[in-house]
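Much of our argument rests on the idea that a fold can be written as discrete symbols. The record that follows shows the chain in one-letter code together with its fold in token form.
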Amino acid sequence: MVEKFREQDQISIVGFSSEAQVVLPAHKKNSIEEITKAVNQIVANGSTNLNAGLMLGYQQAMEQFDIECTNRVILLTDGLANTGTTDPDQIAKESKKYNKEGVSLSTIGLGYDLNQELLRQLADTGRGLIHFIDDSKDITKVFIREVDSLLSPAANKVKLTLDFGDCKKVPKIYGYDSKISKKGNRLTFKIDDLNHNATQVIMSKIKPSHEISNIVATLEYRDAITKQRTKTVQKLDITTKKVKESPQQTHDLLKNYTIAQLSQSIQKSIEKTENKKPASGVATLKKSIKKTRKSFKEKQDQDVDRVVKIATELQEKIESSILHEKREKAFPGLRKDQRCYFSQ
């Protein structure tokens, strides 16, 4: 990420465990060596005072605030806030104050031991991106993607409205949460700020029973350069007649649909586990992974494989938790190694 910064860009680094500290103060012309040295000084220890780290990050951004530039904090965490201010609503409230001052926020959650709703809420109010990742390769991709967004912004405050006319039932949507109108046939989506050459996909599954003849899509955004509001309207005719698609189009559509379904299963599984139904969560993942492998064989598509890997690791973690709970009930008071021996 560091290598992509320009001379005029500024970066500061804040580390947080039980307390927060400035690892690298914000100033212009940080050298790659300086930043790399600062990063290498960070070690994992103590608790997770997420709010202290976040607030110190905001303060660093405010010290070098420039209304003509992009001012953003990127929060990376691998755990739950468990020290200092831990109430999600209070953290979000304090974060929002800086967002109103013009500092945006993107969040990166590493692993599964996260308050995902908090990170999602922070990114949403901070008008930034949100990422959930599980390995070092993903971290690299995400940070580079974030820097690209910082260095080449194209549109912000992006909103998409889909009007389904007089349909009786709004079709299923994948990829984004939406707000539904009182009439029940219009959906509004808040989309992440976009950089040049970025692509966002919102997928809808439409059945003939929905009785939809057309969809009106309205895209509104503020141009990041001119600061002018722009509005584009497009009418999409829906037909039951088969459309000839190229093999690549068919592949891309199936790929997006497969990833959307698998991602939804991951979310449902986490919700079921949190609601004390881990076995049901495992069943959801198994079914989705099996269905995915019918459409895509292993190593056929690296993006699909990546999501399958996340789902598989989550399944294994939930199964391990179930097994641990069974051992606890069967052999209370015994050491872990003893429980393993007797359970065999």
Summary: Residues 339-344 have pLDDT under 50 and may be disordered. The longest strand covers residues 153-163. DSSP finds nine helices and 13 strands in the chain.
